[in-house]
Amino acid sequence: MEKILELKNLRTYYSTDAGTAKAVDGVGFSIAPNRTLGVVGESGSGKSVTALSIMRLIPTPPGYFAGGEIFWKGRDLLQLQEEEMRRVRGNEIAMIFQEPMSSLNPVFTCGRQIMEQILIHQPFSQTEAKDRTIELLRLVGIADPARRFSAWPHELSGGMRQRVMIAMALSCSPSLLIADEPTTALDVTVQAQILDLIARLQADTGMSVLLITHDFGVVAELCEEVLVMYASRVVEKGSVRDIFANPLHPYTRGLLKSIPRIGSKAERLHVIEGSVPSAIHIPPGCRFAPRCPMADGRCFNEQPELVSYEPGHEAACWKAG
Ligand SMILES: Nc1ncnc2c1ncn2[C@@H]1O[C@H](COP(=O)(O)OP(=O)(O)O)[C@@H](O)[C@H]1O
Ligand SMILES: [Mg+2]
After folding, report:
1. Closest-lying ligand 1 atom to the alpha carbon of residue 45
2. Which of 18, 178, 235, 317: disulfide with 95, CB 3.0–4.6 Å?
3. Contact 228, 249 (CB under 8 A)
4. Whose CA is closest to atom 10 on ligand 1?
């Protein structure tokens, strides 16, 4: 399989007064061109730190890379100078976040902010950059884009602001879009619209998408492949079809049972007892053992590694298979 991005044994740690937080602790996966990979896991699993590591947006200190590699089109991003990394961020990999308001500057109009991005990274005149901005606003489904160019961030709804952020991300024609819980802050109908938009843009542009979410339902809608993270590691990965049909890890099964059904008012049918351990106090053995209905002595003592159970379908569990 051709790989545009490949993480190998990535470790991203933070020094804190309470000890070392192993926020990402030996994560590996890859993504092919023109693919959508979902990353799921409860809050605190290491999803955002994984994404920020790829972008090299980990504040150092207190964060640091304790090991591993992030190959982007064959080059290890962890070895690049900041200058080169800025070019990658501006032209090849773009990221959108959960809360679009905090990523927009309140003192500039939305159009101006997109235009600035274009002017920094591309040899466009002011007029060309403005035209391109309006085209991007249209592309992300903003009606009357020439007028909306002059809108202030606070004048727009959350969904519209997320569309503006997506337009900004697309302004560099990235080969990879990282979307970190892009719809979590939005209400349900708007969520669906934004997800549809991302799916359409992915299909139209051929970019790859790394979609981070705590919601397996979102993965089912949008992704071909999925990575399940728990306590800073990958516990299962495979095609969405295989994982829905035959989840191998008890944690994955727990997450699948907690997908809200349509019409259930997003009420959780099932929750996994307990919570994700702190990245500072990771339990020995399998990290999920303290919450796992199947755990026995070995699970509490020996850490399972990812093992392949069917082509392209791996799990890290002593009880799988
Ligand atoms: N700046 C930081 N300092 C210390 N610990 C951090 C920092 N950022 C994240 N962490 C820890 O890393 C772990 C993973 O966080 P994160 O990647 O944000 O999880 P997720 O996105 O899956 O909810 C958490 O336990 C969190 O407390
Ligand atoms: Mg997060």
Report:
1. 22
2. 178
3. yes
4. 23
> What is the pLDDT, as a whole number, of residue 263?
53
pLDDT at 259: 78
Ligand 1, atom 16, residue with closest C-alpha: 46
Cα distances from 126 to residues 14, 111, 122, 284, in angstroms, run: 42, 12, 11, 57
Can you give 202-268 as a three-state secondary structure string?
Answer: HHHHCCEEEEEECCHHHHHHHCCEEEEEECCEEEEEEEHHHHHHCCCCHHHHHHHHCCCCCCCCCCC
- Record the tokens describing residue 48, joined without a space: 């955002």
Q: How many CA atoms lie within 13 Å of 258's alpha carbon, on the beta-carbon side? A: 16
Full set of structural domains in the chain with CATH? 5-92+213-315 (3.40.50.300)
Cα 129 to middle of ligand 2, angstroms = 33
Q: Is 83 exposed, middle or buried (0-12, 13-18, 19+ CB in 10 A)?
A: exposed
Give the pLDDT of residue 304: 98
The percent of the chain in helix, strand and coil, each rounded to the nearest 5, is: 35, 25, 40
Q: Are strands 208-213 and 225-230 parallel, antiparallel or unpaired?
A: unpaired
- What whole-number distance in Å separates Cα of residue 272 and Cα of residue 193? 29
Is 207 a residue whose pLDDT tops 80?
A: yes
Residue found by looking up tokens 């020439």 in the block: 146
